[in-house]
Amino acid sequence: MQFQIPNLLTPDEFQQVTQALAEAEFVDGKLTAGWHAKQVKNNQQLKRENAQDLRRTVEQALLRHPLFQAGARPRSIHSLLFSRYQSGMSYGRHTDNAFMGGSGLRRADLSFTLFLNDPNEYEGGELVTEGADDEQSYKLASNTVFVYPSSTLHRVAEVTSGQRLVAVGWVQSLIRDPAEREILFDLDTARRSLFTKSGKGDEFDLISKSLANLLRKWAD
């Protein structure tokens, strides 16, 4: 399952993040790439030691959003990076590592990209995900986050002019299996819709019971 969340950050948060990035020092993105990804990764990243407050801002915005909570069931958000692609830069076809975080390894179940500047400010730079028989391209409005399975083959097309700014990160979910996460998401969506229409009735209670019991059964 994949989904988008527009307007993730508040206006003040968005201004804080983008202004800080405009004044920040970036380094070669290969410094955080795996041995095989180094061959296809050509971008720049904000120095980790300068990104702590910005990472916290993005993480808190994700954790407070009900769609992210329902779709990702996060145990932790980790390894968040701020990336810059200037003209001629790209990130070739790859799959994200199963585990990240150095000595404190955490699983990567879901990946996300938060777009931080307007798509009209650069040419190219689409995030391209590969399915069994097709590709999908994403070049979303600023302050929109796209969440997708970390098992997906994907790439960032070459930026041919302008500059692309994004935050990327990963989620270790409480629910390891993506099919189980989708079932829980559907149940949660149905019970919220039912509550809006009919309030807290017998049907709502039964769906809530099933949702809670499946969480107990499947949580990792």
Overview of the structural elements:
Strands 1, 2, 4, 5, 9, 10, 13 and 15 form an eight-stranded antiparallel β-sheet that branches. This protein has a five-stranded antiparallel β-sheet with strand order 3-6-14-11-12, with no helix packed on it. A two-stranded antiparallel sheet has the order 7-8. It has five helices and 15 strands. It folds into two domains: 171 residues, q2cbj1_9rhob like domain (Jelly Rolls); 41 residues. α4 packs antiparallel against α5. A hairpin with a 5-residue loop joins β7 and β8. The protein is 31% helix and 34% strand. By secondary structure, the protein is α+β, with helices and mostly antiparallel strands. The radius of gyration is 18 Å and the shape is globular.
Helix-strand topology string: EHEEEHHEEEEEEEEEEEHH
What is the C-alpha radius of gyration, as a whole number of Å?
18 Å
Mean pLDDT: 95
User: Low-confidence parts lasting 5 or more residues at pLDDT below 50?
Assistant: none
Q: What is the helix content?
A: 25-40%
Q: Give the termini distance in whole angstroms.
A: 18 Å
The biggest sheet, with number of strands, parallel, antiparallel or mixed sense and barrel status, is: 8 strands, antiparallel
Q: What is the strand tally?
A: 15
Top CATH class of the largest domain? Mainly Beta
* CATH T-level fold name of the largest domain: Jelly Rolls
| Shape annotation | globular
CATH superfamily of the largest domain: q2cbj1_9rhob like domain
Q: Which CATH-level-2 architecture of the largest domain?
A: Sandwich
What's the number of helices? 5
Strand content: 25-35%
Tally of domains: 2
The assigned structural class equals alpha+beta
